[in-house]
Amino acid sequence: MALRTLATRRRLGLGFQSIRGLQTFSLPDLPYDYGALEPAISGEIMQLHHQKHHQTYITNYNKALEQLDAAMAKGDAPTVVKLQSAIKFNGGGHVNHSIFWKNLAPVREGGGEPPKGSLGSTIDTNFGSLEALIQKMNAEGAAVQGSGWVWLGVDKELKKLVIETTANQDPLVTKGSLVPLLGIDVWEHAYYLQYKNVRPDYLKNIWKVMNWKYASQVYEKECP
Ligand SMILES: [Fe+2]
Question: How far is the C-alpha of 218 from the C-alpha of 224, rounded, in Å?
Fold first, then answer.
């Protein structure tokens, strides 16, 4: 019965729901059509990435949370500890992809337009220029071994922009008091169907659909 309730609520497209006090998650809608980022990122990649990859992280995250809930109710400490890696990986996958979709925007909706306001001037101060920032992020993203992410974040304590990479699906919060402004997925599933093994070309083109407006909004909220 509980599972049927969960399935029904997922179909309603709610971002999360509470079952027996346990909060679970569902796939957020994309703010644009799958093909809207072409030619930078193909519609086929976007559809698979969203419907299959992101959905799988959510499914496995919910499963792990339900197992955690049961283990905690039984006081089963070894199982609680054992579940941490699945929660970090799949929960991180959900967190990271939820940010990633908002980091992108179709060109006709401002994708690729350079940041204005305080973020634009802080980038110039911290990195010299927007072009210098892009080159540094591309170099670090290309150098990620295996699968992971390259991030532009803001260190809230130091009020400074930082470039960081994380392995697998580790979210940026695993690196300290950093808030993500932009995250680029460098897993092969994000580019291989279109760019094959040439990750640097994917990194070069993704800036054409980067949603700097979103990054600026987060930055201004964190560093008013
Ligand atoms: Fe991904």
Answer: 10
